[in-house]
Amino acid sequence: MMGDVGLKYGPVIFEGVSPNAAFMTRVKRFILTARTKYQEVQILELYEYGRALVLDGYIQSTENDEFIYHESLVHPITVTHPHPKKALIIGGGEGATLREILKHSSIDEAVMVDIDGELIEFAKKYLDFMHQGSFNDPRSKLLIEDGYKYVKDIAPRKYFDVVVLDLTDPYGPEISRKLYSKEFYAMVKSVMKDDGIMVTQAGNSFFYPRTYARVLENIKANFSIVREYWVWIPSFGYACNFIAASDTLDPALMSEDEVNSRLKSRNVETKFYDGALHVSFFKGKVLLGKVPEE
Ligand code: SAM
């Protein structure tokens, strides 16, 4: 929700992080406000976080801390796969998830499917520090369509080594909710190779424990190895949960040295993620809050 609190703060973004808690941060400049066929898109300059993408009033990523989210989302599963070549990204409109996937020199094809073509055009124009030209990489294949329909149409096709679901929150806008369902995860599995691995961002387990538990259950119904991890994202005002799943690969078994040697052998440069962080991700416990959900 945008608004001018009218105090000394001036214009702020005031974002509900739960039915009863909010996150507020000052806006320096409004760069773009538009409504696409699917969502309200804002690109703001924030005092604290730099340039930010906001969808339907929710901060998606910001200049000053997006690498925390995108490196944590992409690298744990991609490093765990011994020779990832074919990647599928559903969502990820800013192009930063695509950027991180393409860092792995083993990748020879990265298919990115986002429902909102207008958002992608805004990202190309205003968020170059996010995509960094990844849309133009010869390995990239950008498709503008509903990710649910895309996967349903190509299934079953054991094609992808890694699948990254970088969607709006499971308790957020309607357009992505069915991509957190049991049926969708079964279809995702049918387009992965038998030794494939997937990950999804899963919102926040503390503020939305029931929704998170449902997403986890839907994934566990389809995969035998399911690993949860989370990382604090300053501009979200909460920790973001991730759930990785496979029938053969287990990110929790990777050692610090194995992670670092795979990053090195694939020429992957990161700002935040490394072997030590990877190991810590899978040692941690997941916090389930007691807050009353919606
Ligand atoms: N980093 C953000 C976060 O953690 O909340 C999410 C990344 S991104 C901005 C979310 C993307 O999901 C948007 O680009 C949106 O257009 C896309 N999206 C939502 N529903 C979708 C669907 N059904 N199919 C494909 N893309 C979808």
- Number of DSSP strands? 13
Overall pLDDT: 94
Low-confidence stretches: none
CATH superfamily of the largest domain: Vaccinia Virus protein VP39
- Per CATH, the class of the largest domain reads Alpha Beta
Shape: globular
CATH topology of the largest domain: Rossmann fold
The rounded distance between the terminal residues' Cα atoms is 17 Å
CATH architecture of the largest domain: 3-Layer(aba) Sandwich
General description of the model:
The chain is of the alpha/beta class and 294 residues long. It has helices spanning 66-80, 96-102, 117-126, 128-131, 147-154, 182-190, 209-220, 256-265, 275-281; strands at residues 2-4, 11-18, 21-35, 40-46, 50-55, 58-62, 86-91, 109-114, 140-144, 160-166, 192-201, 225-233, 238-246. Helices cover 28% and strands 33% of the residues. Helix 1 runs parallel beside helix 2 (96-102), helix 6 runs parallel beside helix 7 (209-220) and helix 8 (256-265) crosses helix 9. The strands form 2 sheets. A 7-stranded mixed beta sheet has the order 9-8-7-10-11-13-12. The protein is globular, with a radius of gyration of 18 Å. The chain has 2 domains: 2-62, Spermidine Synthase, Chain: A, domain 2, CATH 2.30.140.10; 66-281, Rossmann fold (3-Layer(aba) Sandwich). The structure holds S-adenosylmethionine (SAM). S-adenosylmethionine is lined by residues 55, 60-61, 69, 90-94, 113-116, 119, 146-148, 166-169, 175-176, 179, 201, 240.
